[in-house]
Amino acid sequence: MGRRGRRHSTGFGYIGFGNDQKTFNQKTSTPFSVYKEKLDLEAHLHYKMEFLHKDLTKAEKEKIKEKIRKQERQLFIRTAIISLVVFAGVAYTAYYLINQIISR
Length: 104
Fold this sequence. Notes:
The protein is mostly helical. It has one domain (about 20-104). It contains three helices and no strands. The chain has helices at about 20-25, 30-45, 60-104. The model has no long low-confidence stretch (mean pLDDT about 75).
């Protein structure tokens, strides 16, 4: 009259947030460490200092943050323009090929 099997499954198991598929498909945002590295680099290049040596004033921090935001906007705009050009090329090629097939 012993146990017939294991009480707990040895399968997938508990992962902390449940086994919902939506948990695995979430897109993570940009980690703070990436922005911190950019902020540190900007401070080092423009103010010739490291964060550990001197505290930045609020105005200096805002200036650096604004420059990072401007760079991110420029990258986004550049990416959007390149994407539109590539999409237009693909769309035109598809349109041309479809017209060639239909006309025969």
